Amino acid sequence: MDLYSPGKRFNSPEFAKQFHDCMSNSEKDAKPSTCLLCGKPTTSFCNSHSIPKCCLKNISDDGHVYTINQILNFGPIDREKGLARTGTFRLICKECDNQFFKNYENPTAYLDEPNQQMLGQIATKDLLLEINKASILIALDEKTEQNDTKAVRELDFSENMKALGKAVHAGRGKGSPYKLIMFQQLNYVVPFAFQGVANLVSDFDGHMINNLFLYNQSYRLEPLHIAVFPLKHFSVVLLFRNAAAKRYKKFEKTFLNLLPEEQLAVITKILFSYVEEIYISKAISEDAINDKELESAIRMNLMYLAFGGDEEFVIKKACRQYAINSLPHVPNLLSSAYAL
Ligand SMILES: [Zn+2]
Questions:
Q1: Which of 222, 153, 196 lies closest to 9 in space, CA to CA?
Q2: pLDDT, tens digit (0-9, with 9 covering 90-100), for 20-44
Q3: Given this model, what pLDDT does residue 303 score?
């Protein structure tokens, strides 16, 4: 439901101006004129990674990792990527890239539960990646004169910029805007890495969480932040949301009653059905790469293109299909059975 989703709401009018002020006219290397973190004018932007390089290095082989397309085999999309090209964006200056994320990019920090400052830094990265995707899509819509989708993306862009302000504040050690739902330390190295957001459509039984098809200025999506970090000798998996988010109550009640290994299975299901920027070790078992259920989960991302009908019809259908209990039975890649 990421980059390809017509239902993804990315942006807003007041930020459209900011966007235009910030972005260069070139579609190819669209980038702001000021760093989105410190606000200083910058001409040399950093090639930032959404997932810390220290995590990617732990699972890479000769500097390469698989993308989800190694499982999906879909046309021209890359099946593997070099680390320099995995989940990257150019929106902040080198100084901010080196300084701002220090707490959360330090593996020893995960010997304890992550604090609000670390969650703020993770959320900042997640939002920068979303803003980067939105800017590319808006540029594309402008070029192709897709005014309807452009308005939706601008709404999302604005939401993400507002959320970014809060995340940056927390990342600097101020405020407690997040609720950590789950944190697990695993004493093995998991075979994939991920960091980003998923806007869950429905809970375990199909009750709606986010209506991705309601394009209304006053409706806010509530994202779930998810991180899977394979570290040198262990891994951490964490899940958090904005403390003010209201729609995850039922989901959390069921989720928190599960055994730790079952929680990992649920996170694996959600990730492969909702997001694209999962980077997988080339040492993963062949069984996993050839797993048909895993392929069906990844295919759900693309399925949104085929959704037609009015808003009520599509959201009801999506709630049924994305009910966590109905998602494909993917192998639990976060369990010790798939450890590297
Ligand atoms: Zn900066």
A1: 153
A2: 444 444 335 456 788 999 989 888 8
A3: 57
The whole-number pLDDT of residue 78 equals: 80
d(C-alpha 267, C-alpha 239), whole Å: 9
pLDDT digits (tens, 9 = 90+) for 247-261: 999 999 999 999 999
Cα 99 to averaged position of ligand 1 atoms, centre (Å): 9
What's the confidence (pLDDT) of residue 208?
94
For residue 205, give Cα distances in angstroms to 15, 186, 290.
36, 28, 28
- For residue range 119-143, list pLDDT tens digits in order: 999 999 999 998 888 888 777 777 7
**Which residues are within 5 Å of ligand 1 (an ion), measured at CB?**
35, 37-38, 93, 96
Across the chain, mean pLDDT equals 85
- How far is the centre of ligand 1, averaged over its atoms, from the C-alpha of 158 (Å)? 20
CA–centroid distance, residue 11 to ligand 1 (Å): 22
C-alpha 162 to ligand 1 mean position (Å) = 17
pTM of the model: 0.87
d(CA 241, ligand 1 centre) in Å: 25
Closest CA to 331 of 276, 282, 259, 268: 268
CA of 157 to the centre of ligand 1 (A): 20
